[in-house]
């Protein structure tokens, strides 16, 4: 049976790679103020502080390694394609662990910390080094215009039209390692249900929108995701 599976991932899938989640007890937002570090207003008020915060996150992302959950989703993408099916992988994460695990098609709805954007000319560039106020745009040369190519609170997530189209075509919706606290991603499960699509959550603790999922499997992503992928590829799901 050809499958079109929509998988939404959050910080929980990268937790076992050593990258912090946001809302767990010792999460990033328990230690830092998102209004100062993850909003356009915060960046305008103190760009040096915000650059420093994302430089740390970029270095951590580069030092991290994909875990078995990332590898399993890359295996799912290849396995479904071999059957004429499709995996639509949408992540809220700004790291590149899905790509480094072998996933070839990843939609980063909250952008990528390993890319930078010039607010003057709009050029987006792959960026692995530290970024600062004085960093000149590699395209237009202006200074004080470069920012991490990530989506902050109050900004429009990326590729929402592509995401909505993929949801309409899916025959299974799975959320991995996300608290369901941030929209529009947190609303995907309701959209899937409205389309009559079966829904499954794979997470360590029940998400804020847990009641909307038909099934929830609690556990570490590095265990639950490979088991799920085995089931799909052996056509038990
Ligand atoms: N395996 C599976 N799930 C895990 C694991 C793990 N090892 N560790 C934590 N989790 C789960 C938690 O139970 C929680 O439900 O991952 C989820 C992490 O939730 P958040 O920290 O809120 O992360 P996320 O849902 O991705 O946040 C969404 O908020 O701040 C913004 O832009 C940021 O993309 C982020 C968005």
Structure, described:
One of its GO terms (molecular function) is NAD-dependent protein lysine deacetylase activity. Its cofactor is Zn(2+). The chain is α/β, with parallel strands linked by helices and 237 residues long. It has two domains: 1-19 and 66-110 and 157-237, TPP-binding domain (Rossmann fold), CATH 3.40.50; 21-63 and 112-150, SIR2/SIRT2 'Small Domain', CATH 3.30.1600.10. The protein contains ten helices and nine strands. A six-stranded parallel β-sheet has the order 3-2-1-7-8-9, sandwiched between helices. The longest helix has 17 residues, at 47-63. 42% of the residues are buried. Adenosine-5-diphosphoribose binds next to helix 1.
Layout of secondary structure:
Elements: E1 4-9, H1 12-15, H2 28-31, H3 34-37, H4 40-45, H5 47-63, H6 68-82, E2 86-91, H7 97-100, E3 106-108, E4 111-118, E5 124-126, E6 146-150, H8 160-169, E7 172-176, H9 188-194, E8 199-203, E9 215-218, H10 221-233
Parallel strand pairs: 1-2, 1-7, 2-3, 7-8, 8-9
Antiparallel strand pairs: 4-5, 4-6
Helix pairs in contact: 6-10
Give the number of DSSP strands: 9
Ligand types: adenosine-5-diphosphoribose
CATH superfamily of the largest domain: TPP-binding domain
* CATH architectural designation of the largest domain: 3-Layer(aba) Sandwich
Largest sheet geometry: 6 strands, parallel
Would you tell me the structural class of the helices and strands?
Answer: alpha/beta
Helix content: 25-40%
Total number of distinct structural domains: 2
Distance between the termini: 10 Å
Q: Roughly what is the average pLDDT, rounded to an integer?
A: 96
Task: Calculate Rg over CA atoms.
Answer: 18 Å
State the CATH topology of the largest domain. Answer: Rossmann fold
CATH class division of the largest domain: Alpha Beta
The total of helices stands at: 10
Q: What are the segments in which pLDDT stays under 50 over at least 5 consecutive residues?
A: none
* Coarse morphology: globular
Sequence of strands across the biggest β-sheet: 3-2-1-7-8-9
What fraction of the residues are assigned to beta strands by DSSP? 15-25%
What is the H-and-E element order?
EHHHHHHEHEEEEHEHEEH
């Amino acid at each position: 049976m050809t499958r079109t599976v929509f998988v939404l991932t959050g910080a929980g899938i990268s937790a076992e790679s050593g990258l912090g989640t946001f809302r767990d007890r010792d999460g990033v937002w328990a230690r830092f103020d998102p209004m100062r570090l993850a909003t356009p207003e915060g960046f305008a008020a103190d760009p040096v502080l915000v650059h420093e915060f994302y430089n740390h996150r970029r270095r951590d992302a580069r030092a991290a390694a994909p875990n078995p959950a990332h590898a399993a989703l890359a295996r799912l993408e290849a396995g479904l394609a071999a059957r004429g099916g499709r995996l639509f992988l949408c992540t809220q994460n700004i790291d590149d662990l899905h790509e480094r695990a072998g996933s070839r098609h990843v939609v980063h709805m909250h952008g990528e910390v390993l890319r930078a954007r010039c607010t003057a000319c709009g050029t987006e560039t792959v960026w692995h080094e530290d970024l600062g106020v004085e960093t000149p745009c590699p395209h237009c040369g202006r200074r004080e215009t470069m920012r991490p190519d990530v989506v902050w609170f109050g900004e429009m997530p990326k590729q929402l039209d592509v995401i909505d189209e993929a949801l309409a075509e899916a025959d299974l919706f799975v959320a991995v390692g996300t608290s369901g606290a941030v929209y529009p991603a947190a609303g995907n499960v309701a959209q899937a249900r409205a389309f009559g699509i079966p829904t499954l959550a794979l997470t360590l603790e029940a998400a804020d929108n847990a009641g909307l999922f038909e099934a929830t499997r609690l556990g570490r992503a590095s265990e639950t995701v490979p088991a799920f992928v085995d089931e799909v590829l052996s056509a038990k799901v």
